[in-house]
Amino acid sequence: MLLRKDIKKVIVEGLSLFFILLFTYAAVNKLQQLNVFENQLEQFPFIGGLAQYIAWAVPATLITVSVLFFFNKVKVLAFIGSFTIILLFTLYILAVLNFAASIPCSCAGIFSSWSWHEQLYFNTGVLLMAAVGIAFSHRRRRSKLESTTIQSYIKS
Amino acid sequence: MKTNFLLPMIAMIFAIGMSFATDSVLIDPNQDYVRLDDGSFMPLGKEIDCGIGDSTCEVELPNGEIRPVYDASDPNTPKVGDGEVNQL
């Protein structure tokens, strides 16, 4: 069954607010304890050598994607960015749990007191939400473009 | 246009406020802790490899006592693992 346009709009706006809250909270949390975050990343398998770059790149990327949600024209891009970030994080957790020689503390995740498994379940839900956001905002943008084209055609 | 910006801006300010307001626990990535009977925490000097699982991670101290392992000197950070008792 097709959802009405206004319901889709509310869902997209709600998801945008959720991602702004999640990413800003996570980014500011990391920036508050940048040295600790870098130290934690150094203990991580596969990425330990890049800790000093990742410690800056993660909050910077999260804030950039949060700001993208402010603009309707790039909302699809923001949802795609969110999906990619969470997907990369999820794949990393899976790699750590399955292939790493020793499992580090799960303290560098979005919520530091969660276990790796809890983060994995949360990420799965967030991935689904980002996918819904991509689908709905993409259709909204396409239908907006179509209606603009029809209106300009009628005027001419 | 104004309302388009207002809600995301409020959400962002709220999230920044939340991250400052929440008392975030500093998880020590270099070592784990055990809780003693008086409620204080003793550092173990190393990270305990608890394996994968949802059981309480425990360690056997040199005096033979078995105690649950914590990620930080905070009672809200118990470590989970495969349930095996680790040797210190």
Q: What is the alpha-carbon Rg of chain B in Å? A: 19 Å
Strand order, largest beta sheet of chain B: 2-1-5-4-7
Q: Helicity of chain B, in percent?
A: 10-25%
In total, how many domains does the architecture of chain A comprise? 1
Contiguous low-pLDDT stretches of chain B (5 residues minimum) are none
Q: Characterize the quaternary organization of these chains.
A: heterodimer
- Morphology of chain B: elongated
Helix percent band of chain A: over 70%
Largest sheet of chain A: none
Strand elements of chain B, count: 7
Average pLDDT taken over every residue of chain A: 83
Distance between the termini of chain B: 61 Å
Helix/strand order of chain B, N-terminal first: HEEEEEEE
What sequence of helices (H) and strands (E) makes up the elements of chain A? HHHHH
Measured on Cα atoms, how large is the radius of gyration of chain A?
Answer: 19 Å
User: How much strand of chain B?
Assistant: 15-25%
The DSSP helix count of chain A reads 5
Number of helices of chain B: 1
C-alpha end-to-end distance of chain A: 36 Å
Structural class of chain B: alpha+beta
